[in-house]
Amino acid sequence: MRKWTIIGSGQKSCRIKTGLYLLFVLLSKHLAAQDIHYAQTTIDLLTGADMHGRGYVEGGHLKAANYIASEFEEFGLQSFSLNYQQKFPLQVNTYPSQMRVKVDQQKLLPGVDFLIDPSSPGIRGKFEVVNITLDTLLTNMTEWVKLVKSTKKVICLNKSGYSQLTQEDKHVIDGFEDVLKFNRSLTIPAAIILIETKLTWNISQKLNDRPVFYIKLTELKSPDIGRIQFNVKNDFLNDHYSQNVIGLLNGEKTDSLIVISAHYDHLGRMGKDTYFPGANDNASGVAMLLNLARHFSFFDKPKYSLLFIAFGGEEAGLIGSQYYVSRPIYPLAKVKFVLNLDIVGTGDDGITVVNGKVYEDEFDLLNRINSKKELLNDITSRGTACNSDHCSFDQHNVPAFFIYTKGGIQAYHDVNDRSSTLPLTEYEDLFLLLSDFIQDLD
Q1: Which residues, 6+ apart, have CB-to-CB distance to 336 below 8 Å?
Q2: How many C-beta neighbours within 10 Å does residue 201 have?
Q3: Mode of pairing for the β-strands spanning 253-263 and 351-354
Q4: Which of helix, strand or coil describes residue 164?
Q5: How far is CA 410 from the centre of its chain?
Q6: Residues 45, 47: Cα–Cα separation, whole Å
Q7: How far apart (Å, rounded) are the C-alpha atoms in residues 276 and 67?
Q8: Taking Cα atoms as reference points, which of 163, 166, 156 lies closest to residue 136?
Q9: Which of 370, 376, 338, 367 is nearest to 355 (CA)?
């Protein structure tokens, strides 16, 4: 083995040290842009059981916010408060403990076999069931409506074959289902809807008069239910608080801001044994936000100042972003552009850019960067859509993109949106596209 020593003039030593330093910087920038390990670690942490689905049971949303704030501090971002957090009020219905359903002798698994409508109150007891199929309902609607108005049994609507109905018949069935859910004059203790589609959950800021359960037909031993047993407890949080997490990184030009946002909240728990991990929605977006914050803090000083906002309350109805734009920490007039990242963990089929058809110059810039570096398979342009936190800025005439990836796994708002199965197919290429876009934006 050859032994290297550095001897001779100080000028030669300086040149070698300078060369090594430049090599280190170049390698550091490359590693920063390719740090998928940091993204995976972040997603693993945010989707862990101790985060409780980043909802409002066991303080899951606050644990996630505190983690993001600690990363902001590590990156040296400026904070407007002691802990980077902007508190805001909300109300939300939660299910912190019991979530048990038994159909005849079959125990059902929450999140796998059934879901509860998120606006449902709790219920406990054993009940007889009246079963209704679509054919019998459409054939004799008047008689079924009379029965539903007079019975004190649980009503079970079997929606097998719903997808094959005409639009007119679907409208009739949907109306009957709404009666089961919302008609306050009914004396039925609960309603059951048997469905053929996947189980997709949400959270709610409302509380209805009776519980409604969605049961997957393929998981039932028999769709003809005789008796059903419930042990479900809800906790409606009428005066609760969540938070946005906000950090500023000054750029070369401090008169304007680029906002990079992603919501960190998810659906939380449905009972003590089931939680919704939310890997793609939206631990993936938070991981991208943090990776960009890390990159521009340590490796690539941004041209414009960057405001990183991890929004809370998105799943409850864009509550956190609406609160922010009504009480901005930094004037909205200073915001040059908003990049909102939500569901960015796949990318087999490229990305979609909401508002791409509105802000055509910025969309063209994305395409030029993508073509030059041959990053993503496709960039699809959409018009306006109020489907994520960018909408709150839209409503205040602040230019914004909402970017999400396409293709790959279809897990969404269900228990299968897990870190272990999230491929991060085009994560690195999307990172390169976004980081260049941020620097090239005029």
Answers
A1: 256, 257, 258, 304, 399, 441
A2: 22
A3: unpaired
A4: helix
A5: 14
A6: 6
A7: 18
A8: 156
A9: 338
Q: What is the identity of the amino acid at 51?
A: M
- Residue 113: alpha-carbon gap to chain centroid: 22
- Cα distance between residue 256 and residue 323, in whole Å: 21
State both tokens at 117. Answer: 């409508």
The pTM (predicted TM-score) of the whole model is 0.91
Contacts of 185 (CB under 8 A, 6+ apart): 149
Query: What is the DSSP annotation of 210-251?
Result: S-EEEEEGGG-S-SS--EEEEEE--EEEEEEEEEEEEEEE--
Q: What are phi and psi of 262, to 5 degrees?
A: -165, 140
Domains and CATH numbers, the chain: 35-94+238-440 (3.40.630.10), 99-232 (3.50.30)
Question: Alpha-carbon distance 33 to 304, whole Å?
Answer: 19
Query: The tokens of 138 are what?
Result: 């459409």
**Are 204 and 93 contacting, i.e. CB atoms less than 8 angstroms apart?**
yes
Cβ count near 91 (within 10 Å) = 16
**Burial of residue 107, with CB atoms counted within 10 A of its CB: 0-12 exposed, 13-18 middle, 19 or more buried:** exposed
Query: Over its length of 442 residues, how does the chain's per-residue pLDDT go in tens digits?
Result: 333 332 334 444 445 544 554 454 444 444 444 589 999 999 999 999 999 999 999 999 999 999 999 999 999 999 998 899 999 999 999 999 999 999 999 999 999 999 999 999 999 999 999 999 999 999 999 999 999 999 999 999 999 999 999 999 999 999 999 999 999 999 999 999 999 999 999 999 999 999 999 999 999 999 999 999 999 999 999 999 999 999 999 999 999 999 999 999 999 999 999 999 999 999 999 999 999 999 999 999 999 999 999 999 999 999 999 999 999 999 999 999 999 999 999 999 999 999 999 999 999 999 999 999 999 999 999 999 999 999 999 999 999 999 999 999 999 999 999 999 999 999 999 999 999 999 999 9
CB 274 within 8 A of CB 114: no
DSSP conformation class of 49: G
Angle at 59 between CA 58 and CA 60, to 5 degrees: 95
Detail the DSSP E strand segments found in 322-362. Answer: 335-341, 351-354
Parallel, antiparallel or unpaired: strands 235-249 and 304-311: antiparallel
Residue 312 three-state SS: coil
Distance CA 60, CA 46 (A): 9
